[in-house]
Write a structure and sequence with these properties.
The protein has 297 residues and is mainly alpha-helical. Helix content is 70%, strand content 0%. The chain contains 14 helices and no strands.
């Protein structure tokens, strides 16, 4: 018997409601396997990049004479990327715990705003949410907070975080073992950290050549080097944050806020063009698109 269009629409609506009810909670059966495969596809390239940096951290740990148990402990408990490289030198130099804690807070302050767009609501359960928060890093945030963040299941989000987390820990331990076995007599290994941050700073400036920010970095480093060389990192980071906070209202009032990199704007424009909502552009949206860049910002 042929179904009427109304009956077919009701069944379709019921299927959508049932799918939305169980969305984000697929941890068993074929749904979980599909989430795992999607997470592997999402994070495979990122895991390779993370593994290279993890090898570098493990080598640096060994070069500073820290015991092998610091490799899994530091990478598992801190899991904060760049700040782990900074902590190696600070711990080796006997830096006070308060200075280390302040440095970690300043470097990782960006995590405070991650919650604005990170789809943590899709992860169900207290312990699952706690694990998702602990394993959150820049790469996991970028993968899980894209235009499809509200369509991702909680299992897929958690798998992405866990895969990156495990690859980081294993690569750090492997780097320590390699450093102890093959690179123990190699000179200049402790300079790897300086080289990594130098290259990251150069790439960041090329992607967004903001001369005012570069000037703030130079001024902050000079102030810390002249007035507090023993607490250089903490004073430099603190001065840099103060300068950025002072710059924001002035730049906003003058309409000279720094623009985002061109590839980010192009990516957002492409995702907006692919969206079904973009096909019905309102007059207000069109007027905004024709406005100057500073006004749009």
């Amino acid at each position: 018997m042929a179904q009427t269009p109304k009956l077919q629409g009701a069944k379709h609506q019921g299927a959508k409601l049932q799918g939305a009810r169980f969305k984000g909670t697929r941890f068993k059966g074929t749904g979980a396997q599909n989430d795992f495969r999607l997470a592997v596809a999402d994070s495979s390239v990122v895991m390779l990049g993370i593994a290279v940096l993890g090898l570098g951290l493990g080598i640096i740990l060994n070069a500073h004479g820290l015991p092998i148990w610091t490799a899994p402990l530091l990478s598992a408990l801190v899991f904060a990327g760049s700040v782990e490289f900074l902590m190696v030198g600070m711990v080796s130099a006997g830096t006070p715990l308060a200075s280390i804690a302040l440095t970690v807070f300043l470097v990782n302050a960006r995590h405070l705003v991650y919650g604005l767009s990170y789809p943590l609501h899709s992860v169900k359960g207290f312990w699952a949410k706690a694990l998702a928060v602990h394993t959150l890093c820049d790469e996991a945030f970028a993968l899980n907070s894209g235009p499809d963040r509200n369509e991702r299941s909680g299992a897929r989000i958690l798998w992405v975080n866990v895969l990156i987390y495990v690859s980081w820990i294993l690569s750090v331990v492997l780097g320590y073992v390699l450093g102890a076995s093959f690179l123990s007599s190699l000179k200049g290994v402790d300079f790897v950290m300086v080289a990594i941050f130098t290259v990251l700073a150069m790439d960041g400036y090329r992607a967004n050549p903001d001369r005012v920010t570069a000037l703030f970095v130079a001024v902050s480093a000079a102030v810390a080097l002249i007035f507090a060389p023993s607490s250089f990192l903490v004073v430099a980071l603190g001065s840099y944050v103060v300068l950025l906070l002072a710059r924001f209202p002035v730049a906003k009032r003058r309409g000279t806020m720094p623009h985002r990199a061109g590839h980010e704007v192009a990516a957002e424009a492409e995702s907006a063009a692919e969206s079904p909502i973009a096909t019905a552009e309102s007059p207000a949206t069109a007027a905004t698109a024709d406005a100057p860049a500073s006004t749009q910002r």
